[in-house]
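Pilot study result, target chain (80 residues):
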Amino acid sequence: MRTIEVLGSGCANCRRLEANAREAVTIAGVEAEVLHVTDPGDIVARGVMSTPGLVIDGRVVSAGRIPNAADIARWLTTEA
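Predicted structure:
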């Protein structure tokens, strides 16, 4: 099972990224858990200085922008 983490305070952009990540799981047809990390210390510890951030299986794949569901789905299937 893949682990997807959305890093951010819970603002509208973070919620939109989380929705895109959930849609990407469906598009990619993979089994994944989507988590939302809101603790600023945890976010900074991962090296993300601009939110929202997106982490797939412990690797930061995006920060400071909102990738679309198709891009996230591609990351989920090509980086398995």
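One observation from the pilot: The mean pLDDT is 96. A full batch analysis is planned for the follow-on phase.
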